[in-house]
Amino acid sequence: MRGPGPAGAADTSPWRPGCSGLAVAAAGDFRSRCNLMEFQTNIIEGNKNPRARVVWAGAVLIFLSMVLMCMNASVHYGFWLFGAGVVVLIVGLMGAKRDVGVMRVSETNLIMGCEQIRVGEMVYPLPQVTEIVFQIEGYDGMVDEQGYASSDVPGNWNWGILNGMNNYLDFKFGDEKVEWQFYLSDPVSVQQLGELFKELYSKGIPFRECSQVSKRTFLFAPVSERQWEDLMTQNGYSYGQGERTFG
């Protein structure tokens, strides 16, 4: 598969087959299925379900009971507190109907193109935005070979399954530092984000993409600074001093 550069360019892009994780997910031909100028997803926010907070309160009580049980003078109170914590936890679980996560996918949209960033009713014109950084972990259900995910892959306890919620967009709007956490639902959403990256690169809009394990990526694949510069040149993209230094 040819990389995202001009016709005839050498296929040195990390989007080629054989790369793992996000680079493979992004390698599909997405041009017939999305608006190339925009990436749209949902932001992540704290769980506002009040019944979920009851579950968390029960968990805190159980933890405190364990602490008391380790103290000889308070073992009796620890058992009572443990029982109360279990009751609160069960009541909360029944009321929350399994919606107990600390974070959840919001209904608020995040939409970014080459002209502006929109989050709900808030609009950030791109000419007024600087130091754009995308930190991408992965999409919902993606196998995490780095072991960051909380859920394990059966048969391989060093790997995990990502929930798609630990992806971040940071930037400066005037003097304000802004951060949005956003959701990647599947490989298609990764492809859409990859198309946005290519549009930003092709228009010379300064931004940086990275991951939890690499300070610099190129279309999701970890690279060194020198490799990034070489790939930018090979694919016909220009870059400025600001893209090397910020963040």
Account of the 3D structure:
The protein has 247 residues and is of the alpha+beta class. The chain folds into two domains: 161 residues, no CATH class; 47 residues. The strands form four sheets. A four-stranded antiparallel sheet has the order 1-2-3-4. Strands 10-9-5-11 form a four-stranded mixed sheet. Helix 2 runs antiparallel to helix 3.
Structure annotation, total helices: 6
Shape designation = elongated
**Helical content class:** 25-40%
Largest beta sheet: strand ordering? 1-2-3-4
Largest β sheet strand count, sense and barrel closure = 4 strands, antiparallel
State the total count of DSSP E strands: 13
Strand content: 25-35%
Number of domains: 2
How is this fold's topology laid out?
Blueprint (H helix, E strand, L loop, with lengths): L21 H4 L12 E9 L3 H20 L5 H22 L6 E11 L2 E4 L2 E4 L3 E7 L4 E5 L6 E3 L2 E8 L3 E7 L2 E7 L4 H16 L5 E3 L6 E2 L2 E2 L2 H10 L6 H5 L2
Parallel strand pairs: 5-11
Antiparallel strand pairs: 1-2, 2-3, 3-4, 5-9, 6-8, 7-8, 9-10, 12-13
Helix pairs in contact: 2-3
Produce a short descriptive summary:
The protein is about 30% helix and about 30% strand. The chain has helices at about 20-25, 50-70, 75-95, 185-200, 225-235, 240-245; strands at about 40-45, 105-115, 115-120, 120-125, 130-135, 140-145, 150-155, 155-165, 165-175, 175-180, 210, 215-220, 220. Strand 3 and strand 4 form a beta hairpin.
